[in-house]
Structures are given as C-alpha cells and as structure tokens.
Specification:
Strand order of the largest sheet: 1-2
Mean pLDDT: 94
Radius of gyration: 19 Å
Number of strands: 4
Order of helices and strands: HHEHHHHHHEHHEHE
Number of helices: 11
Largest sheet: 2 strands, parallel
Shape: elongated
Distance between the termini: 19 Å
Low-confidence stretches: none
Length: 190
C-alpha cells in the first residue's frame, strides 16, 4: 500500500530500505538479519498460538512433575486447559521482560514454581529450535542489548520511528522502540 501511494505521488523511495510492519514482523526481520547472534539455529520454526499450546499439551506431564506445580498450573484433569494456563504465564512473563532467575530467588513458593515452569518451557523452545510470538520480541531485544555493534548500526540507520496503536504496546515492545530510537529521539506514537 505504501509503495502504491508513493508511486501515485511520484515519490521515488526504495521501501525495502525501510522497516515497515508490525513490531513482531520487524523483530523477525532483525533476527533473520543477525541470526548468528541469537539462540536460534538455521531452519528455526515460528509457532503460532495454537502450535504453542499444542507443544505444551504434548509435554504437559513434564510440567506436572515440577514439584508444587499445581500452585501455578492448577490441578485440572484437562491437559489442554493446563497447556493454556502455562502459555498464558510464559507469554505474560516474557512480554514484561521479567528475569526468570530473579523469580527463582523469591521467598514465595508460587513464584519459585512459576520460574521453574517458565525455565522448562524455554528449554522446550530451545530444544525445538522454535520461536513463539512473545519470544520473537524478547529474542530481538536481547540481541540488541547484548550486541552493541548491531544496536548502534540500527540506531544509525533508523532515524525516525512511527508507532501506530501505541496504546496496545507491551513492555518489551516499548523497550525495543526506545532502544531503537535512542540515538535520534525521533519517535512519533499514535
């Protein structure tokens, strides 16, 4: 749509040089461009919401074997319901950039169990060489924070950021936006 609009206005711009899309698609592009700086191997797979729940569902026994797991995932006989609960927690913790190692240090048993559940889930993702929707953002964020050269390159390249539907951003998305816009401070949100 952007290309057609620019063409109609007789404006010649190579839109391939721009980062246009959802935050998820832009994060995926960054990951693909710098895959060697992530935990992923070639031929990783992106799993959608259903696939995420199904992956957990297939291994729900592993989560139930975590001591005191019922404090977090309940004691439902429905493996699908348990998988949905686990996915809810792992996504929420990821999107808020909560340090799981800090959770594990808590004095609250429920929080310690939550950390164990999340660690098991992340090990499963790593084993499967997979990304879910929340880990796309986290992987991109960690890559930028841990690789200053990549971050500096992108900060120099991206002079303007415009974010639509800003009220729908979560914490990790906000951190990505602020990190990418840090050098030029040209951020417009709608």
């Amino acid at each position: 749509r952007l290309s057609n609009e620019l063409l109609a206005l007789n404006i010649e711009v190579n839109v391939n040089d721009l980062y246009i899309g959802t935050i998820h698609s832009i994060c995926l592009r960054l990951i693909k461009e710098h895959l060697e700086f992530t935990r992923l191997k070639k031929n990783y797979r992106l799993i959608d919401d259903f696939e995420q729940k199904y992956m957990v569902y297939q291994r729900v026994k592993v989560f139930r074997e975590i001591p005191n797991s019922e404090l977090v995932i309940g004691d439902s006989n429905s493996s699908w319901s348990t998988a949905e609960t686990i996915c809810y927690y792992v996504n929420a913790v990821a999107e808020e950039l909560v340090d799981v190692n800090e959770l594990a240090k808590s004095k609250d048993l429920e929080i310690i169990v939550l950390a164990a559940v999340i660690k098991e889930y992340r090990a499963m993702l790593k084993e499967e060489n997979a990304l879910d929707f929340s880990s796309i953002q986290c992987e991109a964020y960690e890559m930028l924070v841990n690789n200053h050269d990549i971050c500096n390159e992108l900060q120099n390249k991206i002079k303007y950021l415009m974010i639509d539907e800003y009220q729908d951003t979560n914490y990790v998305q906000e951190q990505l936006i602020m990190l990418l816009g840090e050098k030029h401070n040209n951020i417009c949100v709608v």
